[in-house]
Design brief:
InterPro entries: 4pyrrol_Mease (IPR000878), 4pyrrol_Methylase_sf (IPR035996), 4pyrrole_Mease_sub1 (IPR014777), 4pyrrole_Mease_sub2 (IPR014776), Dphthn_synthase (IPR004551). Keywords: Methyltransferase, S-adenosyl-L-methionine, Transferase. Homodimer. Pathway: Protein modification; peptidyl-diphthamide biosynthesis. By secondary structure, the protein is an alpha/beta fold. It has two domains: about 110 residues, Tetrapyrrole methylase, N-terminal domain (Cobalt-precorrin-4 Transmethylase, domain 1), CATH 3.40.1010; about 140 residues, Tetrapyrrole methylase, C-terminal domain (Methyltransferase, Cobalt-precorrin-4 Transmethylase, Domain 2, 2-Layer Sandwich). The strands form three sheets. It has a five-stranded parallel beta sheet, with helices on both faces. The chain has a five-stranded mixed beta sheet with strand order 6-7-12-10-11, with helices on both faces. A two-stranded antiparallel ribbon has the order 8-9. Strand 6, helix 7 and strand 7 form a beta-alpha-beta unit. The radius of gyration is 19 Å and the shape is elongated. About 0% of the residues have low confidence.
């Protein structure tokens, strides 16, 4: 059996009761933290809280050499953990398909997603979000500024009057649990990049979703680029037109000046 468990958004307390039970009942527990991270905890604390040892795999250990996970799951009860909700990344879907191809039974225990948290914290209606996109660091896509694909996604959503959730890049130099080697794109950096193709455009920053002190700030992208939003992780939302209720929430909770 191979069970995929989403650990939630922030720290060792973010996992659901069902996810905790699956982890504690497992013979072996694997995890990856290169697609997203629990920035409110570390590996030692997570293991102590869950009462288990977690075998962390890097990108190559999931995408190119998943054999240790699959071989273990053929004869043992194995859990594979990720931050957020599992199956959001195609990497995890591929691992599940490989398991099914070998006759390994799989199941999913969901965790909270950044997408649903962003809608909840901003007051922007969930069914008005269009296609999401990820804004990479400049050197990650071999060019300057914003990739054409990101611009096209935002433009297409705005043309259909939909909001765009922009995930911000995480550069992981060391695949293991070492904060000092990670670089997280900040919302101010993202706003600076996006203000070029989208000047005088409203943006909404969501920082530390799932933590005890999340932050939501709404302003023009140009103004957001000049602000700081504290510790990671950050998200950025580019809204379409606002329903009156959405506007009221952004004004009251995010400091938006919609005049």
């Amino acid at each position: 059996m191979l069970t995929f468990v989403g650990l939630g958004l922030y720290d060792e307390r973010s996992v659901t009761v069902a996810g905790r039970d699956a982890i504690q009942d497992a013979d072996r527990v694997f995890a990856e933290f290169y697609t997203s991270r629990l920035v409110g905890t570390d590996l030692e604390t997570l293991e102590a809280s869950l009462g288990t040892t977690i075998e962390v795999r890097d990108r190559a250990g999931i995408e190119q050499n998943p054999e240790p996970i699959l071989a273990a799951a053929e004869s043992e009860d194995v859990v594979f953990c990720t931050a957020g909700d599992t199956m959001v990344s195609t990497t995890h879907t591929d691992l599940r398909l490989r398991a099914e191809d070998r006759g390994i039974q799989t199941r999913i225990v969901h965790g909270t997603t950044a997408q649903t948290a962003a809608g909840s914290l901003t007051g922007l209606q969930n069914y008005r979000f269009g296609k999401a996109t990820t804004l990479p660091f400049e050197d990650a896509h071999g060019g300057d500024g914003v990739p054409d694909s990101v611009v096209a996604t935002i433009e297409d959503n705005r043309a259909r009057d939909l909001h765009t959730l922009v995930y911000l890049d995480i550069k992981v130099d060391d695949p293991h649990w070492d904060e000092s080697d990670d670089t997280y794109m900040t919302a101010s950096h993202a706003a600076e990049l996006l203000s070029k193709p989208f000047p005088d455009t409203l943006g909404v920053v969501v920082a530390r979703a799932g933590s005890p002190d999340p932050l939501v700030v709404a302003d023009t992208l140009d103004d957001l680029a000049e602000q700081t939003f504290g510790e990671p992780l950050h998200l950025l939302v580019i809204p379409g037109s606002l329903h009156p209720l959405e506007a009221d929430v952004l004004e009251s909770t995010a400091g938006a000046d919609l005049e």
